[in-house]
What we know:
Blueprint: H1 7-31, H2 38-60, H3 65-78, H4 87-104, H5 112-134, E1 138-146, H6 157-168, E2 173-182, E3 187-196
Antiparallel strand pairs: 1-3, 2-3
Amino acid sequence: xxxxxxxxxxxxxxxxxxxxxxxxxxxxxxxxxxxxxxxxxxxxxxxxxxxxxxxxxxxxxxxxxxxxxxxxxxxxxxxxxxxxxxxxxxxxxxxxxxxxxxxxxxxxxxxxxxxxxxxxxxxxxxxxxxxxxxxxxxxxxxxxxxxxxxxxxxxxxxxxxxxxxxxxxxxxxxxxxxxxxxxxxxxxxxxxxxxxxxxxxxxxxx
Length: 206
């Protein structure tokens, strides 16, 4: 039996290849260099791939609108509940999904220059914001249990900052608040505010 390949198949394959390249470019060159997690590079590419395929099937098969919305709702329900996703990583995930869905649902007679232009604008906007944010400093707050209560007095603040910088690998400590002190165990609860230029630390919640 001879399998007939419709011309639209080649068009969808070209759009799929193009979309994958776009997602790879902003994931590898924009997300990964700024302390991005390698596993999210895989997530961005594969999520965009499956979304593209789903949208392509929705477009070529007569499915009801409710069914189509239900498919996308599955991803909203899952929402990677097993891990905590930062706002930046969630932004890249939504961007991957959005570009994949947009490119897959473009009609065959559409002006594809507009598609390329829209993707270029999104990537350039992303690059511009990342470049702007890289020039700003982030204030981080950390709560720790400190084991040298001899240094928590005001007159030894300089020594305390030096010790914390050495132990935690941080610099530019702006403020230190002393909380609960346990004299029996010689520990104190400290609230530290410092500038994190490399964005290696996250703010500690209460």
